[in-house]
């Protein structure tokens, strides 16, 4: 077996890629185009149609048991759709592997013949092959997604709030680190499995055994190939973006700033798409390098040269196609550069604080934060033992008060006598009545999260509305909750009340009575927001604490952002919407043009 040094591999792979870039770009670009603009919309429509047919308002971990019992056909349909998605991902990977192999080894095939080969590969695959394929991508996703991505695999993300929670706990942080190290090791030791299964049609068991043999003693060789590729791609992107940005800063001082910005944005889109194709091909070549056992010298891995006429025809075709497609973006670019393509979302202070300026969910912090004029202050309420409402996020007082007692086991009077400490500040736990009255007094609107716990009564929504409904409506407060039952009953019985349904994960688009959806930002995308807009519903994104994520939320059209860094986010919105320079608009667009978002 032939093993090339990482730098030599990268040099030769680059030489071969740029000699045949037209063929490679055609292969990757058209494959992504089919998946992004045909397959993804079809699966989205099928899922939505299935949910409407079966009268399923939403799919989440909270209602899986109910769906199994009450909507077995919906579960069956979702399983079939999931299998179809896995099959498509398998096809995409197989199609790219086969196409790149053919280009490297001088076996040109038509798209139809390659499609036939991959379909036969899928038809001959055993169930264990698909199970291994799913498991393999679960293992390599934390690493491979930087170089190879697909709109379907982009769903397979761990929400940021879960990662943050795990990293805050030392034990979980260590376990997560061990998982990533183990995943990297297994992913590389099994790097030859997919080519063996997809190209040579080995059974998954035999492919695993053979890959383990081939990679024995060569872990660092493959690891460094991936690292070198990732570093070089990152450097190239940084240099290109820096040149475009600095150039636009200079052009902003001239009378042709808009023309220059339109050209620079056009170049940015084309170059980024090219880099996506390049990274995908090099990543696939790393995988295929474990499969090449029939070549006597390393140079023969990249020895094929297309005829000059074929190369010229392919390049002309690609340049023409990319020019037509990219030219269609010029209209959008002009709209974007005039500030019309970015939303100006509402700012919502998470738990009533800004960058640790007080104790979460307390009146002094809310009053201080209200001086910065957020559109809403988000806060949390829970039901107490005596069926009153107290302002508290956690179900236990241990973190904030050092008392290992549940909120549901204490009365309102007991709780409001407790002092909580955070960020160097102290304050008393307030009742919701006190907090609401103080917010009204300071002309601060609230986004009230109703949390559930052990003390909840069956008539919690009615109790809540009976005591606070008139004030909430009069002062235009809003409500959101993770509980579908509470949201649905509030909207059913009090349709004038603005209620948002909180969703930690964008699995399928829900169809509910909610006025809005509060979505965790990791899996939120423009498709979800467009669907919400069609149903005249708002979308609030949480937690948005840095300018890069803020730019992405503005770009995809979020209606509101819940943040722990209110001042920073307010300033970013102002910079992006109040007569920003074209250079800053390019910078904002750069934040959205990551390798991962290119194929969404």
TrEMBL record:
Keywords: Membrane, Transmembrane, Transmembrane helix. Residues 345-573 form the GP-PDE domain. The keyword Flavoprotein does not apply. SUPFAM superfamilies: PLC-like phosphodiesterases (SSF51695). InterPro entries: GlyceroP-diester-Pdiesterase_M (IPR018476), GP_PDE_dom (IPR030395), PLC-like_Pdiesterase_TIM-brl (IPR017946). CDD domains: GDPD_memb_like. It comes from the Bacteria. GO terms for molecular function: phosphoric diester hydrolase activity. The chain crosses the membrane at residues 21-46, 73-98, 119-143, 171-198, 219-244, 256-288, 316-337. GO terms for biological process: lipid metabolic process. Coiled coil: none annotated. It holds the Pfam family GDPD. This is Glycerophosphoryl diester phosphodiesterase.
């Amino acid at each position: 077996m032939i093993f090339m040094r990482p730098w030599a591999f990268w040099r030769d792979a680059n030489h071969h890629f740029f000699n045949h870039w037209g063929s490679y770009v055609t292969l990757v670009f058209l494959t992504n185009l089919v998946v992004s603009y045909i397959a993804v919309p079809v699966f989205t429509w099928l899922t939505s149609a299935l949910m409407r047919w079966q009268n399923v308002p939403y799919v989440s971990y909270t209602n899986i048991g109910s769906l199994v019992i009450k909507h077995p056909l919906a579960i069956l349909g979702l399983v079939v759709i999931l299998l179809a998605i896995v099959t498509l991902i398998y096809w995409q990977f197989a199609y790219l592997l086969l196409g790149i192999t053919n280009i490297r080894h001088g076996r040109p095939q038509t798209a139809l013949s390659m499609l036939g080969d991959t379909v036969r590969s899928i038809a001959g695959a055993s169930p264990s092959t698909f199970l291994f394929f799913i498991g393999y991508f679960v293992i390599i996703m934390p690493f491979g997604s930087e170089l190879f991505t697909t709109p379907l695999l982009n769903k397979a993300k761990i929400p940021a709030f879960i990662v943050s929670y795990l990293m805050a706990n030392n034990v979980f942080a260590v376990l997560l680190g061990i998982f990533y190290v183990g995943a990297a090791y297994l992913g590389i030791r099994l790097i030859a499995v997919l080519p063996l299964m997809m190209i040579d049609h080995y059974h998954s068991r035999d492919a695993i055994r053979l890959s383990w043999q081939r990679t024995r003693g060569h872990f660092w060789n493959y690891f460094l190939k991936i690292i070198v590729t990732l570093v070089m791609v990152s450097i190239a992107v940084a240099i290109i973006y820096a040149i475009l940005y600095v150039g636009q800063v200079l052009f902003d001082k001239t009378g042709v700033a808009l023309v220059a910005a339109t050209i620079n944005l056009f170049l940015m889109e084309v170059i980024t798409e090219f880099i996506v194709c390049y990274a995908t091909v090099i990543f696939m070549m790393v995988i295929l390098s474990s499969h090449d056992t029939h070549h006597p010298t390393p140079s023969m891995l990249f020895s094929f040269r297309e005829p000059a006429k074929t190369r010229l025809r392919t390049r002309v075709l690609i340049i023409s196609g990319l020019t037509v497609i990219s030219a269609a973006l010029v209209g959008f670019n002009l709209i974007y550069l005039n500030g019309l393509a970015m939303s100006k979302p509402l700012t919502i202070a998470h738990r009533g604080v800004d960058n640790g300026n007080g104790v979460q969910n307390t009146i002094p912090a809310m009053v201080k934060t209200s001086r910065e004029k957020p559109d809403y202050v988000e806060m949390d309420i829970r039901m107490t033992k005596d069926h009153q409402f107290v302002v508290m996020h956690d179900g236990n007082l241990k973190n904030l008060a050092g008392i290992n007692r549940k909120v549901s086991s204490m009365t309102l009077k007991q709780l409001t006598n407790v002092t909580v400490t955070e960020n160097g500040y102290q304050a008393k736990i307030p009742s919701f009545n006190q907090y609401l009255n103080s917010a009204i007094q300071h002309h601060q609107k609230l986004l009230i999260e109703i949390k559930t716990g052990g003390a909840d009564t069956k008539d919690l929504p009615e109790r809540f509305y009976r005591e606070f409904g008139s004030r909430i409506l009069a002062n235009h407060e809003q409500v959101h909750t993770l509980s579908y039952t509470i949201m649905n009953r509030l909207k059913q019985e009090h349709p004038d009340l603005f209620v948002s349904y909180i969703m930690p994960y964008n699995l399928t688009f829900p169809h509910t009575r909610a006025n809005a959806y509060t979505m965790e930002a990791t899996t939120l995308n423009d498709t979800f927001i467009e669907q919400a807009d069609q149903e005249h519903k708002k979308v609030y994104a949480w937690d948005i604490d840095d300018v890069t994520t803020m730019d992405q939320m503005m770009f995809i059209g979020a209606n509101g952002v819940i943040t722990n860094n209110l001042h920073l986010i307010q300033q970013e919105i102002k910079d992006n919407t109040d007569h920003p320079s074209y250079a800053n608009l390019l910078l904002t667009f750069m934040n959205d043009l990551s390798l991962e978002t290119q194929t969404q």
